[in-house]
Amino acid sequence: MNIILIGPPGAGKGTQAATLVATRNMVQLSTGDMLRAARTSGTEMGKMVAGVMDRGELVTDEIVIGLIEEQLTTADAAGGFIFDGFPRTLAQADALGDLLAKVGKKLDTVIQMAVDDTALVKRITGRFTCGNCGEGYHEEFKTPAVEGKCDKCGETDTFKKRADDNEDALKTRLMAYYKDTSPLIGYYYAKGQLQQVDGLGSIENVGADIAKALD
Length: 215
Ligand code: AMP
Hints:
Blueprint: E1 3-6, H1 13-24, E2 27-30, H2 31-40, H3 44-55, H4 61-74, E3 81-84, H5 90-102, E4 109-114, H6 117-125, E5 127-130, E6 136-138, E7 159-160, H7 167-181, H8 183-190, E8 194-198, H9 203-214
Parallel strand pairs: 1-3, 1-4, 2-3, 4-8
Antiparallel strand pairs: 5-6, 5-7
The site of adenosine monophosphate has 17 residues, from helix 2 and helix 3.
């Protein structure tokens, strides 16, 4: 299955994508992760998008469509692709349809993760990840078993927060979501491809609802 997880920043798309990767042999394609990797490795593109990302604005359609095209033509996904944080504009949605057709694949379903804005602020400002393996945590909802130590890889004192997980950038990211990305909900609804899950529950409950939607 090839699916899109759609929802505002902090809805839990990355967390749920990680579960699907582990349980269904799917491949997560997160344009946010790809862009952060480009920044870390210091590529020209990475340098170009750094300021835009830190402010919480969207990078150009051309850049993210290029990243997805590269993955679709090279990555091997027996269990299918999870598009996480892509598409974010109508132009990206059209491009994804074209790219999938070009490689002989189709989109099976779009899962909208609905969460209210107050919950989003709390989720985003409390989250952090392991700098070594990328495992995600939250100050309230998912703390490591031993303070300062990653449950997954055992590294200590490598926890970090995203540069754009602050209140100013979050405001911009939410505006971008409502202005540019939320029209995709109508777009996929009209195509008969949209399913909605309540993203406000626990990680396990939301995961169970997504599994139901996929099966
Ligand atoms: P994310 O990790 O999905 O929250 O993305 C982090 C940041 O990367 C966003 O705030 C944008 O600046 C950029 N970004 C990620 N995906 C896209 C996309 N599909 N279109 C435009 N910008 C994106």
